[in-house]
Amino acid sequence: MKKVLVATEKPFAKAAVESIKQIVEGAGYEFKTFEKYTTQEELIQAVADANALIIRSDIVDSKVIEAAKNLEIVVRAGAGYDNIDLAACSKRGIVAMNTPGQNANAVAELVFGMVIYLIRNQFDGSTGVELRNKKLGIHGYGYIGKIVALIAKGFGMKVYAYDPFVDRVLIENDGVKYESKLEDLYTKCQYISLHVPANEKTKKSINYDLLKLMPEGACLINTARKEIIDEEGMLKLFEERKDIKYASDIQPDCAAVFAEKYKGRYYFTPKKTGAQTHEANNNAGLAAANQIVNFFKNGDKTFQVNK
Ligand code: 3PG
Fold first, then answer.
1. Ligand 1 surroundings by CB, under 6 angstroms
2. Which atom of ligand 1 approaches the CA of 273 most closely?
3. Domain limits of the chain?
4. Is there a contact between 27 and 297 (Cβ–Cβ < 8 Å)?
5. Would you report the helix, strand and coil content of the chain in percent, each value rounded to 5?
6. CATH 3.40.50.720 fits 3-102+276-298, yes or no
7. Residue of 58, 272, 281 best suited for mutating to test ligand 1, as the one with most atoms within 8 Å of CB
8. 3-102+276-298 with 104-268: one CATH topology?
9. Is the CATH number of domain 104-268 3.40.50.720?
10. In this structure, what DSSP letter does residue 190 have?
11. pTM for the whole thing?
12. Are 48 and 68 in contact (CB under 8 A)?
């Protein structure tokens, strides 16, 4: 009997796990969970007899792939798959998938939770600023960027977007102003929300030269990946400009410097929180389970991210 292992260092909500179990067992497969592990070594041991893996930000590197002798498919229940060694998967003929869009709303809502917390001075009672009539620049107009735009309009913001992979018409159809040049987005918008994946092209691409273009009172919101930020450049800017703020849904490597020098100008979630809602756990977890069942039963490879 094929075995489906849910290997999540940061577990899904209990109800989501129960629903995943029902889908997997209902299709006639064995279901197991491996949660809250603390070392990569434990994960390597846990995957030994799994035919399918459901993961979140868990690191599926070449060692995990090598140890998973029976593995046929790994599904990242979420958007970003920079935590999977795709080349190692392809070499073994293992299909890697994500579940695009399934946790997008949760991430988009967190953008506004973080930005309001920051621009209202962490609710310390001092005078803050509002979002209404301000310009929001969405860097990366995928599933999350699209919902961020929708919510921003509810706040009365003027919304701009840059995404070289999305057709201008699709952006403009949402009532969002299309920017063809990244520099223009950063020059115009006081608020910038990042929604780009971490890959060889984007790593450290949010750098000093780009960030320094942002207008007075700027706030950068990062619910994407810490790797896309050039932290050295960001620290240089923070030193030069007292008006800049940064909200991030992950601790940057230089978090200690922020804590020491820039109190009140940043907020970092202690642990990645964007997709951590009951709804997102359910949507992404169930989608992952269904994709595995469809792959085993029908050979369906929709959402495959490696070739
Ligand atoms: C994603 O890429 O889907 C998000 O970063 C969520 O990650 P998580 O499942 O580890 O919370």
1. 10, 56-57, 78-80, 103, 272, 274-276
2. 11
3. 3-102+276-298, 104-268
4. yes
5. 40, 20, 40
6. yes
7. 272
8. yes
9. yes
10. S
11. 0.97
12. yes
